[in-house]
């Protein structure tokens, strides 16, 4: 071999010792928290946060077709960099840095060694120890000239709604549903800015009514927080994992007003026919005033949800809020709004995923599901949604994840996929989150070029990357062929 210069950093995988040119090694770290990416090869462990950067992690053993091994105190991740791309390689334990001067290089003689990954065998001077040298471009699964071109860019296309869909939406009310005790309430989604978890610290302010929990700071805005239980005369309840704050943004002529409502649990996004919302019964109207303006009747009236008027909440809370109407602040707010999108965040297995709220028609509990023949394996079946047949996709099956044993929190997210209305079954719906474009990173080049995960449109790095959320591109969650199979199966059921 012609290159006898440089240094190798060496490590162990099983009984063998491997090395890689030190020029490609950025650093060596302990195994971090890893976010699993569905529908990826076994050797692709997932994504990790490396000081704000998204780092793909590969299992060195599986990549070299060796038996897998459990993590130990000696396990390390070797961070490699090829041009502008970084990848982490999990190894059993580190060895040492060796100098190649005087080394003897041999061709690969073992037929079981993957020559796409291992370039040659290095025999160190004055020793019989052998080191198999790994090709960096083999780990990155591309040639150097491919890397130099950089990551592929994807053009996102907008899907415009048809007149028929627009007309249907005109007769529907879209609401955020939540619980207080055993009762269900809702607020118009147009007034909801976002839904967030309860922060650890809420600043108490003297002189405010007892139902005002205090003040928090959210995106440089000061928000008073109203405990809706206390406001409505219910008993106080300690905050738990399900407790959420619904942030309302009410616009008036003099400006906009922001405040938060503490609720026991945000349950779903509802799309209900206006005809299914009745006026408040007379016996409630006297006590509730104009705070409750309607009652939604779902499941033929077996389930009732009160609809609240956000403006009345603000007026009756007697909070003296200052309108945010300064020209400079409006300009900043407008700029921030243009850079932010709302996402419905849901859990699936150990990962978190997000879909843009504009693609979500509603979120519902899982009703009885009827299986259908000749559908793809990941189609759980069909449900009756207000007289319409809705196919339900089990995302765990679609993403080849282990089936869920805890089903109490499962929800169905109803979306529109190129004219076909689908339900996506997920483990739990967690929150509605505003994510700034600056917090969204493109998918690593490895996912684009080698594994081809087109259904991931980006990765949100929340809290400086401490929390990673895979953002789904619904246009690629199922293929055109799978969509046709689902439509054919629906035709059989309907005919």
UniProtKB/TrEMBL annotation:
<dbReference type="GO" id="GO:0006935">
    <property type="term" value="P:chemotaxis"/>
</dbReference>
<dbReference type="InterPro" id="IPR039315">
    <property type="entry name" value="CheW"/>
</dbReference>
<dbReference type="Pfam" id="PF01584">
    <property type="entry name" value="CheW"/>
</dbReference>
<feature type="domain" description="CheW-like">
    <location>
        <begin position="340"/>
        <end position="483"/>
    </location>
</feature>
<dbReference type="GO" id="GO:0005829">
    <property type="term" value="C:cytosol"/>
</dbReference>
<feature type="domain" description="CheW-like">
    <location>
        <begin position="5"/>
        <end position="145"/>
    </location>
</feature>
<protein>
    <submittedName>
        <fullName>Chemotaxis protein CheW</fullName>
    </submittedName>
</protein>
<feature type="domain" description="CheW-like">
    <location>
        <begin position="172"/>
        <end position="319"/>
    </location>
</feature>
<dbReference type="InterPro" id="IPR036061">
    <property type="entry name" value="CheW-like_dom_sf"/>
</dbReference>
<dbReference type="InterPro" id="IPR002545">
    <property type="entry name" value="CheW-lke_dom"/>
</dbReference>
<dbReference type="GO" id="GO:0007165">
    <property type="term" value="P:signal transduction"/>
</dbReference>
